[in-house]
Amino acid sequence: MSVCRYRSCLSFCLLVLWFLCGVKLFAQSSSDYDRGVAAFRAGDYSSAAALFARVEAAAPGKTDAALYRAKCLVHIPDFAGAEQGLRSYLDAHPDSSDALYMLGFALNRENRPSESLAIYTKAAAISQPSSDDLKIVGLDYVLLGDYPDAIKWLEKSVAFDNKNKDAWYYLGRAYYTRSRLTEARRAFLVALKLDPRDARAENGLGLIFESSAQPEQAIQAYKDAISWDRENPHKSEQPYVNLGSLLLEQGRTKEALKPLEIAVQLAPASGYCHLRLGAGYFREGQMENALSELSKATELDPANASAHYQLGRVYKQMHQLDRAKAEFEKAVNLQNKAASSAARETH
């Protein structure tokens, strides 16, 4: 066989081999994609994310596997990973409104509301936002402390879809924060009509009762919220701390301790929960426990004047007067600072 014919034959064999490998890789990629979709639909997001990553590695940019993987990471949740994947996907697909809306959501969950709003603005220029998209825009404004705008966008969300119970709940919270109690009550009741065992909305209703000087109705609402939330693997500390705090105000300190202890277990990073439990221990004369909880409260929330004041009371009761004086002074300084700031805002 001549050299030329040999080389020609070899080239042909290599071409066939390359083609067969490509077919095999495509088949494998297609199989992984189908398995990834099935895992995603079954809620197995970790497995789905791994499968979509393999698909993307085998055929970069040829499918929407990278987008699906980002959706998986949002569900896990791994918002930083989702953000990274979405930005990479958007480099190749800059007009994907789906990816933009998802990126806006991830940024909201990463507590980056200004960036989230900028991304939502880009997405809305491409396609109409959904009720859930408008809800997240509202929550961005909540993070920014801009409740008038938060209410405006949450109202738009429920106007777009009046069965969006989460939007109704967050709208109720925004109304409550602005002391618009009648509107807050209505929003929570709508959420409860859509889901009669919505623990968050029932807890919100408890806040309305408490603000309206109806303590027994508030206590029952908090207890109902706790009962309904019992099977939730991601329990909220809110009904527990609200119930315990109200029982403290009613002078029912022994009853208050258990829900407050559970609140601290559920939210160990909440300075407010430690503060309320410390106040309960103080009333019960459990000074060592009170010292522990209130010290933690001031550590987690050093700008909370009430926490420093309560800690000062504990030190005073334990006859550690120098420490008590230091905490009282911190409380006074923080109160004066807050008053000065409020005065500047009114001018």
Describe the structure.
This protein is an all-alpha fold. The chain has a domain at 53-128: Serine Threonine Protein Phosphatase 5, Tetratricopeptide repeat (Alpha Horseshoe), CATH 1.25.40.10. It is built from 18 helices and no strands. The protein has helices at residues 3-41, 45-58, 65-75, 79-92, 97-109, 113-124, 131-143, 147-160, 165-177, 181-194, 199-211, 215-228, 238-249, 253-266, 271-283, 287-300, 305-317, 321-346. Helix 2 (45-58) runs antiparallel to helix 3 (65-75), helix 11 (199-211) packs parallel to helix 13 and helix 15 (271-283) runs antiparallel to helix 16. The longest helix is centred in the N-terminal third of the chain and has 39 residues, at 3-41. The protein is elongated. The termini are far apart.
- The total count of helices amounts to 18
Mean pLDDT: 90
Our measurement of the CA-to-CA distance between the termini, rounded to an integer number of angstroms, reads 97 Å
Major sheet, described briefly?
A: none
Q: Which secondary structure elements does this structure contain, and how are they paired or packed?
A:
Blueprint (H helix, E strand, L loop, with lengths): L2 H39 L3 H14 L6 H11 L3 H14 L4 H13 L3 H12 L6 H13 L3 H14 L4 H13 L3 H14 L4 H13 L3 H14 L9 H12 L3 H14 L4 H13 L3 H14 L4 H13 L3 H26 L1
Helix pairs in contact: 1-2, 2-3, 3-4, 4-5, 5-6, 5-7, 6-7, 7-8, 7-9, 8-9, 9-10, 9-11, 10-11, 11-12, 11-13, 12-13, 13-14, 13-15, 14-15, 15-16, 15-17, 16-17, 17-18
